[in-house]
Design a protein that fits this description.
Layout (H helix, E strand, L loop, with lengths): L1 E2 L2 H15 L3 H5 E2 L2 E8 L2 E6 H7 L12 E6 L5 E3 L4 H4 L6 E4 L1 H8 L4 E2 L3 E4 L8 E6 L4 E7 L3 H6 L5 E8 L2 H4 L6
Parallel strand pairs: 7-10
Antiparallel strand pairs: 1-3, 2-3, 3-4, 4-5, 5-6, 7-9, 8-12, 10-11, 11-12
Length: 180
């Protein structure tokens, strides 16, 4: 477990700001204490400083996890958010897409969102903006990227893809046999 380097921190904050904008600073300076990001075995963890200090007593090879895993670095050095970050990011999200009940299951199976399955979308959402996908009762379901801006969604045909799937809460079940 070690602190992130300058470049690593920059890539993590860029990815987080794609979904929650300038609210990234609210993740670090919280009223219930300070939180930090730590790297352990190519995974980035979000952890309170008090727990992080206690974990320094555990040997690195014996440490399995620490705090909440928000993403991992690929072998090529890119940072990817994981679905475990959804509960942390959903309250701070600037842009959301609400799915109709019928298209929730399709999204949870890993499919993109069509205009016919779009319930609502946050006003002034730009094209290729990162969004949090929610059910109509505001339950966060996953991450996506908007394929069309809010204005373009209004004019789109019902069969047009309006949001690209990135990850969802059904990922655990689909990748159950590949987890080690």
């Amino acid at each position: 477990m070690r602190p992130l380097t300058e470049d690593e921190m920059k890539s993590v904050f860029e990815k987080l700001s794609k979904y929650i904008g300038e609210n990234v600073r609210l993740l670090v300076d919280r009223p219930d204490g300070n939180y930090c990001f730590r790297l352990h075995k190519d995974r980035v963890y979000y952890v309170s400083e008090s727990i992080m200090r206690k974990a320094t007593n555990v040997a690195r090879k014996n440490l399995i996890s620490l705090g909440t895993c928000i993403g991992k670095y690929t072998k090529s050095g890119k940072f990817h958010l994981q679905i475990t970050a959804l509960d942390l990011l959903a309250p701070y999200a600037k842009y959301k897409v609400w799915l109709k009940h019928g298209s929730e299951q399709s999204f949870l199976y890993g499919n993109h969102i069509l205009k016919s399955g779009l319930g609502r979308i946050t006003e002034n959402t730009a094209q290729y903006q990162g969004v949090i996908m929610c059910s109509m009762n505001d339950t966060p379901l996953g991450f996506g990227v908007v394929a069309k801006s809010t204005a373009d969604c209004r004019r789109a045909d019902p069969g047009t893809i309006v949001a690209f799937h990135q990850t969802d809460i059904g990922e655990y079940l689909r990748s159950e046999d590949t987890l080690t």
